[in-house]
Hints:
- By secondary structure, this protein is of the alpha/beta class.
- It has helices at residues 40-56, 77-87, 105-118, 135-138, 146-160, 201-209, 227-240, 260-282, 291-299, 308-322, 338-362, and strands spanning 19-24, 61-64, 92-95, 98-99, 123-128, 166-168, 176-179, 193-197, 213-217, 248-256, 304-306, 326-330.
- The chain has eleven helices and twelve strands.
- The strands form two sheets. It has an eight-stranded parallel β-barrel, surrounded by seven helices. A two-stranded antiparallel sheet has the order 6-7.
- Helix 3 (105-118) links the parallel strand 4 (98-99) and strand 5 (123-128).
- The protein is globular, with a radius of gyration of 20 Å.
- The two termini are 23 Å apart.
Amino acid sequence: xxxxxxxxxxxxxxxxxxxxxxxxxxxxxxxxxxxxxxxxxxxxxxxxxxxxxxxxxxxxxxxxxxxxxxxxxxxxxxxxxxxxxxxxxxxxxxxxxxxxxxxxxxxxxxxxxxxxxxxxxxxxxxxxxxxxxxxxxxxxxxxxxxxxxxxxxxxxxxxxxxxxxxxxxxxxxxxxxxxxxxxxxxxxxxxxxxxxxxxxxxxxxxxxxxxxxxxxxxxxxxxxxxxxxxxxxxxxxxxxxxxxxxxxxxxxxxxxxxxxxxxxxxxxxxxxxxxxxxxxxxxxxxxxxxxxxxxxxxxxxxxxxxxxxxxxxxxxxxxxxxxxxxxxxxxxxxxxxxxxxxxxxxxxxxxxxxxxxxxxxxx
Length: 363
């Protein structure tokens, strides 16, 4: 396995068509020695430092996720993104994701349009139903309305993107009659918007029908197996007569260190503990995943873990097989220390990104 520490390579001759993102959910972390769990306020301040470093390291996009659980510190990604926008200069600001099913589309649009105005057009939003269900009872929604909530609210949000008077009616909120939402943005096509999809064809078709970007959450198995969904997205766009840019992004968990061995040593304990906890919650079993399973996910699955060269090669493979225009790395996991994540962020921006662009330019 690769153990080299490749030098940073200039990216001046490359285009910016392929974007590099970093995503975080504000996992509640521990100190590097594992002796103390950080408080949620400490985690929030660390996330701001991580995003600031990502901007300085040349990363194109920072994604902030929404959860309502004790193991994550971020429940209001738009508030965190506003702070990040004030502390950075160029990085794009996106939610990863906004749980639209349990939020109000009008308020979501207003909040992200506000961030967009304050940061000179850097805001984007990724809409999803969330990987956990805590927000539904928290905000008084019935899980039996799971599908209807998302379908109606995406429909309304899409209409709001016109930034003109909107008339809409549905069963999940009060209707609108010739109402306009403020603030508006400077985008001709409205706020840049994606739909996050975990692998359901109906969700892919929904994104295409509304003319929104497709963001694939690839968190298990080989990324290549999502190729039929990308093909479906493009076919659906054509059938619905949607014109313009066809944006496809992917999101996966991973971690970068100077060598493969160091990356695996640092990432495995927190990853295994997180998988164990999730398995208990969802009935997958009580055991911890083995190192062999971990290796399988790195070599053939969805984990992007290793040296800059190893991670870069896997990103290139994913781009070539899926035709993605953006890759997002969820760089933290569970108790993995902030100090280690800072190292990974800098390597991702200063080494992984230029290596990927060089590999793509040589093909």
